[in-house]
Amino acid sequence: xAEIDIRSALASWVRDSGESLYKASKKVPAERLQWHPxxxxxxxxDTEDQVAECAVINAWGTKAFQSGSLPPIDWSxxxxxxxxxxxxxxxxxxxxxxxxxxxxxxxxxIDRLGDKIKHPFHEGEITWADFAMIFYxxxxxxxxxxxxxxxxxxxxx
Length: 157
Known about the structure:
- The protein is mostly helical and 157 residues long.
- The protein has a domain at 47-68 and 76-157.
- The chain is built from 5 helices and 2 strands; from the N terminus they run H-H-H-H-E-E-H.
- A hairpin with a 6-residue loop joins strand 1 and strand 2 (125-127).
- It is globular.
């Protein structure tokens, strides 16, 4: 039986999830990138915002894997970071951040993937391998959201 290199597998999943979000968002016409549903009395998120979020979060994950420790998250600075990505090309920022994250995961010491770290978003601990999967899950979740936004504005292709 062939052995699986877990770092390569994790990096591949992250690349694939980022590519899924990229492809879903690329199908959205430019005039619809900032279209958002308006359920009830609030506004839903638009495609560009979700792509920018994933670019910012993936870049943060890259720093964690490169340094071997979780960088602090200052949520008061998060909106400005997303806005900065949106000033440029959010899709290209996502592509770059995803590739940098996948490369950082591939370079992470394999003997540390099972080490426990504080969960960055919840109570408790997770492993570095579990941490890598957060980025996979986040990109896949947002790819689904972008696909749903397309249906809401009438694109059923």
